[in-house]
Amino acid sequence: MIEVKDLVKRFDGFAALDGATISVPAGSVYGLVGPNGAGKSTLIRHLTGIYRQDTGTVRMGGEDVWENTALKARVAAIPDDWYYFLQSTVRDMMRFYRGFYPRFSMERYEALKDVFRIEEKRMIRRLSKGMQKQVAFWLALCCMPDYLILDEPVDGLDPVMRRQVWSLVLGDVAQRGTTVLVSSHNLRELEDVCDHVGIMDHGKVLLERSLAQLQDTTVKLQVVFREDREVPPPEIPVLHASRIGRVHTLIMRMSAQEAEARLAAYDPLLVDAVPLTLEEIFIYELGGVDYAVKDIVL
Amino acid sequence: MQSRTSFFNGTLLRKNLTRFWPLWGMASFVGALFPLALVMELLRNRHFELTQIDLAGAYYSVASDVVPVLSLIYAVLCAMAVWNYLYGARSVSMMHAMPIRREGLLATGFLSGMAMMLIPYGVTGGLCVLVSLVTGAFSLKALLVTVLVVLGESFFYFATATFAAFLTGNLFAMPAIYLVLHFLEVILDSLFSVLAQGFLTGVAGSYSGALEWLSPTVYLENTVWIDRVVEERLVNQDPYSSYYDYVTTEIHLRGLWIVGVYVLVGVALLGLTYLLYRRRRSESAGDVVAAPWLRPVFRVVVTLLAALPGGMALYEIFWRSFQYSPYYQALPMAVCMCVAGLIGWYAAAMLLAKSLRVFRGSWKGAVAVMVCCAAVCAAMHTDVLGVAARVPNAEDVARIELRVAGNSYTLDAGKEDALIAQVVELHRAVVQDLDYLREKETERYNQAILQEDAERLGETTTWLWLKYTLANGQHLMRSYELFLTRERMAQAGTYDYLLDALVNGEAMKAVRLHDGDPDYTLTGGYVSTDLGGSYDLGSREAEAIAAAVRRDAANGTWGTYEWFDSSDAHDYAINMELTFEYQEQDSSGTSYTSTDWITIRVRPEMTETVDCLLRLGLVTKADLVTRAELYPEDYGYDAVQGEGDGAVLADENTSVAVVG
Known about the structure:
heterodimer, A: Rossmann fold, B: alpha+beta, 3 domains, four-stranded antiparallel β-sheet, 22 helices, 54% helix
């Protein structure tokens, strides 16, 4: 389990993290989403022991991460801009990782050769960005981590390789109980792989739930009121409302049953609950903190 | 290979060595050239002999002179290689995400760097040992001493480079900080000395070296020295070609304690580095200064380094031509220093903030800079510390080097105590008249007194240069342009009087001729006349002439410096030099034979010397003609006038000029 509590990190007075709290259940795939500058990468750097927090706690499996080599030996991370030594080949970097991670599996390394199909003796700097990302996955998975921390992990990968990589990661989750935290802007993809989601903004985690819970507690309703009502009743808590013709689309933070029950009091002509995507949840949740897509007239 | 400990990682060590092999490989190659050159010399010249002492001398020369400089430069290159991961956000993230503690990274990185430092020395040293074994000149003691020096200095320099590496987050700032750490004392000492010279009368020397131990390279170069025990031996005992030569019988490297002290300093710096790393924030990659508490120190150092030379440069450009005395004027200098200081202050702020927008809200710091600059100028102008008035006590002096009246002298405590006391008394008298000197200098600077008028009024100037070496090892240098008058010279207690008493005293004349000084050996010289004769002197001829000059000195006809007329019009047209040899040691302690010579101006009243020259057949009676008689047009006489004036000028005594 990954637990971050009241995490604060300031850079020259600017609070990149301002009391962020997340809780990632063991063996889950946790999607960390948020707008640019929300603090996702900063939080990830705390999880991997790169940054030391100003205040708050960062723990994995009940242990503090900072300078905890035993714990870090069970954590593998792939940052958005993976670093490798300039003159090194894949095999050189493998040897380097093998020297640090006690559980590095050569057996897996050999097995994954067939998956990634990259020449071991090629200089990494001569590989394409997508291939470099594959190398990062190759090595990270060979470390046999209990915790896998991924920052924009599949950027640059082709669709087939994306599916392949996710398949490997989810395989580890299923077989070894690996806990995965992934930060990405690709919400459509996260929706497919994550079972928990946290939404960050301005250094705080605004919302954190399991995906099912999130989809259960936020509902999108299409409603047609009777002719005498042109706007939704003000007493109904609506995250977002729009209207096309006489059809109102309302996003409400409650279950579909509860929302339908509350709208029933206004005797609508039509009430229909439709599935809500993660992207919609992200946009409408952040709309509450002034992050709605603005209609800009040029 | 998986590491079992979090304090060291073999993989990282190997990676560092394999990544940066071109650096230590190239250094090893360059180092190997020296023993290889020796091998080539041995192959080419079969008669080339290498003794144990020669080899020990070569080792010690390298240890005392070469290793500090090489290590200074090479350590920073190794540190830039090993710690370069600290300076990139991506690399520092990767290394700090690895399962190894900061201590482990520090220890492994340091060992990697030390290995890179020592491999070239090892290669070079190993080859040297092989060569020495081949020639049979192997010296175990010299080898061990040199190895210890190399180990100690390599450790110290790499520790300081590592310390500098952790002060910054910027690869380009790192060598700059390293060099400033090593030479800040020398730089500031020199800058303040130059500034003091501009403000204060008599202050000389652009470097005092008072805290030289803070500049390890300079201090090591000056403190670790080679002690050679030298004997004069008959060489090549062949009846036709034998000669005496100085032969080194023992050789030792002295001052090694300082290497030990610097090793301890290196250990302390490593401890500080560890603390710095524990507190270092990975996000400081790219920052000029990595530790927040160090930012004010950085700004102050940059401001100092800008204000002092910058202020003096601005003064030279904008104010020098307006000043009314040879000394700096406090107010314009303060303005110039403020401008330069503010430039440094804000430049440092820009470097720290990585932004040009640093002016808002920083007025307090700017005011502090201006106040400090004004305070420095005021302190210099008023000589708050009493630097200009400082005269050491005679009993605290170990040696005085003196240049006056065209001669240079070295007076050592224990040998020339009375003369040292005289010099100190003279110096005190000069210091008491500093206001008078400044007034005279200002008058002359403004050309209120023309040189011809001064001479007509019986005034002249002379330079007095003094360098004290005190018993505690400190040095004090002063240089005065003294204004002399006949009136003051006749007045007891004035510096004019004391100067004349010193320079024209019998004891100083004896010092000039190294009379009775066992350290100096008269070896020869030459005599030539303007009418054509020229002879090299053997040691016996030189001894005879020196004895004659001594008799003339005793008779009062040689050695008196005439302050108000140094013309050679009434010298005989004879050029004569006597040459002395003596043993000296350079700054590293290496002994060598040095030469000193004295130019004797021969005048008609020097009857003993003239007789001696005639007796030895070095001159004839025809050569006894004065320069005024020989070249009347050069001295403003015609032949008739010259004869008439000759009687007047013949009273004046002979002067001597010695160039050491």
